[in-house]
Amino acid sequence: MSDDGTQPAVDSMDQIRRHGDPSWRKGIQFYVEPKEFTMNPSRGTILPQGHQDIEVTLCSNTVMDFRRRLLVDLEGIGQGVAKLFITARCLVPELRVYPEILLYDECHLKVPYERKFLVANNTDLPGCYGLIPQKRKENSPVLYSSPKPCGIVQPHSFAEIPVVIEVQTLGEHRTNVLIGVFGDERNPRRVELRSSGKLAEIYPSTRLIEFGKIPALQPTSRSFTLFNEGLVPADFRMEVARKPHCCAIEPREGVIPAGGEVPVSVTVTLDDTGPFAVPVQLFIGNSLWTAFGLVALGTGTTVVIDKPFAPELNLGYQFSLVPSIHQFRVTNKGHHFYQLFWSVECYRPPEQEGQSVSALSSSQDDSQSPERASPVFGLEPVSMDLKPGQSEDMVLRGFSHIPQEVHDYVMCEAVSGITRRTEKIIETVLTCKFIHPSIEVSARQFSFLVNKKPRDVLTLQYQPLALKNTCLLPLDLMLDLEQPFLVCDEDQQPLPDGQPVRVGVGETCHLYVAFDPAYELDFKSWKKEKILNIDMVRGHPFVERIVLRGEVHFPNLQIQPSTLKFGCIVAGTKEVRSLEMTNCSSLPVEYHWTFHSKSQVYRLRYELSAPKFQPKPPKEKRTSLESSVSRRRRFRIRKEEPVTALKESQDPAQSSGAEVPPESRGRYYIPLGLVGVKSPMDVLHTPLEVEEVFSIAPLSGVLRPGESQQVSFTFSSGFNTISDVMALCHVEGGPTYEVVVTGETSCVSYSLSPREIDCGSQMFNEIHHSKVTLENTCRSEFSWVLNPSTADQQLPGVFLVNPTTVSSTSD
Predict the structure, then answer these.
(1) How many other C-beta atoms can be found within 10 angstroms of the C-beta atom of residue 320?
(2) Which of 190, 267, 644, 729 is the most buried (most CB within 10 A)?
(3) How far apart are CA 331 and CA 392, in angstroms?
(4) How are strands ordered across the β-sheet holding 274-284?
(5) CA dist., res. 239 & res. 281, Å (int)
(6) Global pTM value
């Protein structure tokens, strides 16, 4: 078809199925020209001498006059080989709607009511119509819809459009309705709906809700019922005209079903004492329907405490010997100023027929509840001023030295800022049971014993410890213990420092006590005793103590003495000293001796000091008689030294220039009066190996537990030496013991003073005494013997020497 579009056209049957489509209001929106003509068939084959009927259908979506050409194309020959002119005219029938005003009269709110419009078609063409959907809003007073909004009205006939409305609000309502005609959407038919909303019979079960006397600040509830005798559900809402914060209505709003009822609960929480009366308004929809009243009488007080306090306060179990402290916050939730005064005294319950009226004051023995002169608990502060809405902190503090059950009476009196009248507003019986903390331990002492053999590896030793809470309060146990012990948890992991162990009532905590045998690593046997202190309650004097003992045994020796002093001995001689080794451990001891690698023996050489005298001048000549006598009474003392001394030093006479008698050559000779010529000075010389001077026997061995053994140290040297060495006793798997060994060797040297005794002239019957000093100038002790010369014994007179032999000590 020439000049025809491509977008499919919309027919009336499709349009009426889309009653909510925007095209009823705005028309069909085509992006390209609609294809309004269809041929059926539109292509095919015609046999020779044959024919084909073609049906041409016009579905016009445009109001206009059509003059189109129907073109026939032959494949392979040409296009438009045949054509047919088609003319048509598209019109929209003039439809009318009756009545223009549809009356619904009085309608109950939200009750559906149905009326019908008539669509009249007086033309020769069928018409397509549709009720345009309502644009609803939240405050739409009337809602309308149709179960059959669209249809086709035939020529010279009528069609019905049923319209159902629901009135949402009370009063008269006029609602405009649009009915569109397909093809003439720009000119919809306008009609009007008129209705009047009214309420159904809705009412509460009572017009006055009485609460009576109720405590202030405590919620009190009452119930009533809302009835709906109408045929449709009704939306309701209730509001409290005054003091809405004191009333809670549940449900405050909702829907009452048709012919049904809704239970309602009203909870009143008075914020003051005295009369209370407020109206409650009932709204149906957005209209006030009716009202009813709430009345109550507030009693008690508007001073409240943040925790349960009155009329009874049971603190349960508390520990004795530690303060029992409880904090409260007092708040004035009323509208008046109050002065509060607190007091605490011993509780004495009133007796009635021998029985207490208080549930907390059950009869007890006098021994169990001794009469108290003063209360155990006290309050701080004892007075406070509270403005409306103001709060104040209050502390309840108690302390008991003994386990006991305590009943105290707490009273609060208030003075109102308006009446200035004192009234008792709070009375409380306070109950508390003081107990001692207690635990049950699996053992009162623990002992650890470790025998460290040479190839053993030291590891932590564990023993289980069970702690059971035997009191009626949970315990936070603080365990204090020093090294080498520690406390571990069930997994044998050390407990964190400062962290308590929580043990509930009747529960048992399983722990481990660990002992560290590697705490001291000097390989000496050791013992430690510590106390495990268990604080059951912080600040409580009751502390549980467990004794812990730990022993670690190494292969150990006891060596006596620890120092060997050989002193100074004569060079070329031997000296033996011994010490005793005892195995003081419970293990066999394998030992061996060595000398410290830095120990040395030092050889000394002598350096002679200058003479301490000046030679005496020659005496005057005497007479021949005196000379004769003098020759007979003058003695010379000669000094002999061992060959070792001659080898050790040079001739002092030669070094000092003194004359040596011919008969004394080849021997050591000290001139008369030469005191200290040979004075050795300790000058270090070539060091010697320790083993050249000292020897140890036995060098090694094994000692059984408790066994003892003597160890000999031999000291000898042919030189002048000084020794200060360290002997080491190595114990396999144990410590190394040190023994200090000191000694010196010295060649013999001495001096005589004077070397000549001159007795002078003496009476023949008198005894003359002279003194000769023999000085030991070496460092060792030696013995000497004085032998008078045989020639001197032939002289006149008797020569006696005393003593003739003795041991000379070193200087």
Answers:
(1) 19
(2) 729
(3) 6
(4) 208-215, 287-299, 274-284, 234-240, 253-256
(5) 5
(6) 0.51
